[in-house]
Amino acid sequence: MTQKKNLFDLSGKVALVTGGATGLGRAVAQGLLDHGAKILIGSRRRPTVEETVAEMTAGASSPDTMVGGVALDVTVESSVERACRRAIDLFGRLDILVNSAGFQLRKPTFELTAEEFNKMYDTHVTGSLRCCHAAGRIFREQRQGAIINIASISSFVDLVEVAAYASAKSAVMGLTRSLANEWAPHGIRTNAIAPGFFPTDLNRHLITNTDRGRRVLEHTPMARFGDQHEIAGAAIFLASDAASFVNGHTLVVDGGYLAAGVSDAVAPWGSNATG
Q1: Active site residues
Q2: Which end of the chain has the least Cβ crowding within 10 Å, N or C?
């Protein structure tokens, strides 16, 4: 059996990245672009999408159109369907879906409302399912496709006062396993990435120069937060032929946080705190 010379080469592939205009979603989109994929950025705020597309296009190595954008609200089915059609119209195909749209909420659970809890699920879990449905139908016809959901370290361990977020991200991991089991016969691989602590606009106020952040650093063997570009490698791997037999897996990228019990590593206060 012959193999590609570069198993991580994504040339000829097209990826839709939800939540791809900012934060970790943008870092993933940039990583996929750097490895040859054409990218459709989806996010709710059109001006932010347009700005991101312009910046990524300016930095692209190919003169061909490599980056497009679409206003996308994952809580609205018609918006999701429109985004997938946009990928086909712009690039002629769709091969990779990255479900990165989301938000964070820290609140004592006694004060958490059912409406807030359901909103979190509608974005992270049902929103991911909507996108998987729309892209999955295309993948099923092609007999190939890769889905990458974004779970969280809170899918595995408790983080105080983020019950809605942790519950939703745990459900994302369960959804990933279910689709991997059910959709593999259609040529669809479904995996997830569980980021550890990466300062972004969503969580920087929770972990930068706070007691919570200090405790995170002290529990992380690498004694620092992640840099956003460090999440891209996991997505490149899972989207590529290098992961052609990887299905139903959640890849943790956390600097060793989940592995740590009692150790000698004590991170100094504020180490790399600004990301």
Answers
A1: 165
A2: N
